[in-house]
Amino acid sequence: MTETVLEPVRKTSAEPALSVRDLSVSFHSDTRTVHAVDGVSYDVAPGEVLAVVGESGCGKSVTSMAAMGLLPPTARIGGSIRLGGRELVGAPEKELQKVRGKDIAMIFQEPMTSLNPVLTIGRQIGEVLRRHQGLSRKDAKARAVELLELVGIPAPARRIDEYPHQLSGGMRQRVMIAIAVACDPAVLIADEPTTALDVTVQAGILEVLQSLRERLGTAIVLVTHDLGVVADAADRVLVMYAGRAVEQAPVHDLFATGRHPYTRGLLGAVLRPGGEGKRRLPEIPGLVPSLDSQPDACTFAPRCSRADDTCTGSRPGLRAVEREAGADASHRAACWHPYAETQADADSGTGSGTDTDTGTGPGTSAAAQEAGK
Ligand SMILES: Nc1ncnc2c1ncn2[C@@H]1O[C@H](COP(=O)(O)OP(=O)(O)O)[C@@H](O)[C@H]1O
Ligand code: SF4
Ligand SMILES: [Mg+2]
C-alpha cells in the first residue's frame, strides 16, 4: 500500500483544508474494469496551491471529481476524502449537495459548457448566493457585482446584465471563478482552467487564482498539463502516472531535482535544447498502460530505461527521497531507483541514453532493501 502521511509545505498549525488518503476509483462495466485512480494521497493547506500534473488519462480529473462527489454511479470509490474534518467518501448525496459550491467548488476547462447561455451572468452568480446563503435577489446582485470585481472583470455593474456569449473566453472563465468562489469555499479545484485560453489571458486567470488564495486563504488544487503554469502558480506538485501518485514535492525541488524517471522525462523534454518555449507536457516514448489491472509492479517500467526485475516484480510506494543538506522531507517519489539530487538525467528516464548512475540506480541499497520487505 502507498505511504500516506504528507505534510503541507507551509509551516502552519492549520488543519489541511482537503485531505485525500489512499483514494481509489474504479469504473465497472459488463466487459471491463478501469482502475482510474489507485491509492492517491495528498493534503492541501489553506492558502496553498497544489498542482496536479501528468499525461492525459492519468486520473487527474477523476481524482478531482471524486473530491467534488460528482462521479457517476458506475464509479466505485475507496479511501478517504476529508474536507475540513468531514468525510466525503460514502456521504449521502444530500450532504454532498450542501458542501458542493459552498465549501468546495470546481472550475472546468471550458466555461461555455458550464454556464447557462440563456441566463445573465448576474443571475447565475446570484443563484448560487441565494441557494447557499439565502440572500435576497437585491443583495445577491450587489454581491455578484463585488465578485465580478474580485475576479478582475471591468465595469462589473454593466457586465452583470450580459449573457455568456457577449463575453470573451477569458472573461467567461473569470465568471466561472466568480461563481465558484461566491460562497468563499475553503477549497477550489481548477481542472485545466487555462488550457483553452491564450497565454496572456491565461496569465490573468492565474493572477486571479493567486489573489484568491492570498485574500481569502482558499486552498487551490490546480490540475494542469502546462508546466509553465505549474512553475508560475504552484507551491507544491503532485505528479500522477496511470492513476498513481509517482512524485510529490515543493515546486522548486521538483523543477530543480525531479527524482522519478517519469518526472525527469516530463521536465527533460521541456528543458532539452530545442524544447525552449514548449510549455505543454511533452511526448514521452511509449503509451500510458491500460488501467484494467493494478499490477504489483511499477506501471512506468515499460517506458523506463532504469527498469529492472525489482520494478517489474513489486510496486514502489511513495516514500521520502533521501535527505541531502537542505532537502525538504516533503519530497517523495514512488520509484525503486530514483535519481539522486545531483544526478544528471542523461537518459531522462526514457529512451536509451547513457546511465550516469551515482549510487541510486538499479540494484543499489534503497531498492534492494525495499524489495526484500
Ligand atoms: N465515467 C467513466 N467511466 C469509465 N472510465 C472513465 C470514466 N471517467 C474517466 N474514465 C477513465 O479514467 C481514466 C482517467 O481519466 P481522467 O481522470 O479523465 O484523466 P486525466 O484528467 O488525467 O486526463 C481514463 O482511462 C478514463 O478513460
Ligand atoms: S526505475 Fe523502476 S520503479 Fe523507478 S520509474 Fe523506472 S521502472 Fe519504475
Ligand atoms: Mg482531465
From TrEMBL:
One of its GO terms (molecular function) is ATP binding. It is found in: Cell membrane. Residues 20-267 form the ABC transporter domain. InterPro entries: AAA+_ATPase, ABC_Ni/Peptide_Import, ABC_transporter-like_ATP-bd, ABC_transporter-like_CS, Oligopep_ABC_C, P-loop_NTPase. Keywords: ATP-binding, Cell membrane, Membrane, Nucleotide-binding, Transport. Residues 342-373 are annotated as: Disordered. Its main location: membrane. PROSITE patterns: ABC_TRANSPORTER_1 (PS00211), ABC_TRANSPORTER_2 (PS50893). Residues 345-373 have a biased composition (Low complexity). CDD domains: ABC_NikE_OppD_transporters. It is a peripheral membrane protein. Belongs to the ABC transporter superfamily. This is ABC transporter ATP-binding protein. It comes from Streptomyces silvae.
